[in-house]
Amino acid sequence: MRCPFCHCEDTRVIESRPNDEQERIRRRRECQDCRRRFTTYERIEDPPLYVIKKDGRRELFSPEKLMEGVTKACEKRPVSRQAIEQMVMDIELGLRDELNDEVSSSSIGDLVMTRLHDLDEVAYVRFASVYQEFRDLGTFLREIEQVIERTKQQRVAREHHSLFEG
Fold first, then answer.
1. pTM of the predicted model over 0.70
2. Using one digit for the tens of pLDDT, what is the confidence trace for 33-58?
3. With contact defined as beta carbons under 8 Å apart, do 32 and 12 qualify?
4. Where in the chain are the domains?
């Protein structure tokens, strides 16, 4: 492993541990030349997963690209980086669990929309405005009205549930 600081190839592992999901191994390394320490992550290489775009093009699935889109939607919202990373990881794992080597971009967008709606309503509307290509303010307002209505229904369902639980 090449040192990110001095680019020396002589590094040693000083600590290894699996992450919480047991899917990656975190390794602390030390450069034998400059003595600086850095962290690397090792994981099993997954078979390629292709995304079929709206125009029919195929490209490799990129969790980084998905993370970027979700992060933009959640910008300046009370959503932790950890929650975003967890959502992206859950979506990727769900897609890979389906054992298909191709998935439509619209399926991914729908999964993100479902998860964002539960995570943060403003981030959901932001993502929806790009994903669904809102063309005018009326479309934007209709989506906000639907979010408000779903939120009311969820609140009523929770209150109804708590009345019969307690």
1. no
2. 999 999 998 877 778 999 999 899 99
3. yes
4. 11-43, 50-140
